[in-house]
Amino acid sequence: MLSGNRNFEGRVSPDVQANYLASPPLVVAYALAGTVTKNLAVEPIGNGKDGKPVYLRDIWPTTKEINAFMKNTSPRRSSRSATADCVQGRHNWRKDHAVDKRVATMRLVPCA
Fold it and tell me: Is 31 helix (H, G, I), strand (E, B) or coil?
């Protein structure tokens, strides 16, 4: 099971003949279940410490929980700070000066 967009045969291993593309939480759920043959909509992922079955619906966040999380985070601010110097490059890149001026110039565009 993969979480990504490279789900063609042989991507992970040449011995893999079947691929399933899923969201990261579903990949974890199937890993906990130990198989991709379970229908997690109706079958339990496994059993809790108390021995009772645990279903995907028991661990999957509700829309209300997701909205509360999103409200309390600022992806725009955090992504801007993470990419603020992407045009200039990292410190080691900025201090390195090219000697050969025959190299074609690049047009830099903002990342965000």
Answer: helix
**Cut 0.70: pTM above it:** no
> What is each CA distance from 16 to 23, 27, 37, in whole angstroms?
19, 16, 16
Whole-angstrom Cα distance, residue 27 to residue 32?
9
C-alpha to C-alpha distance for 21 and 1, rounded to whole angstroms: 6
Helix/strand/coil for 49: coil
Kindly report, residue by residue over 15-30, the tens digit of the pLDDT. 766 677 778 888 889 9
Helix, strand or coil for residue 19?
A: coil
Residue 30 three-state SS: helix
Angle at 55 between CA 49 and CA 60, to 5 degrees: 105
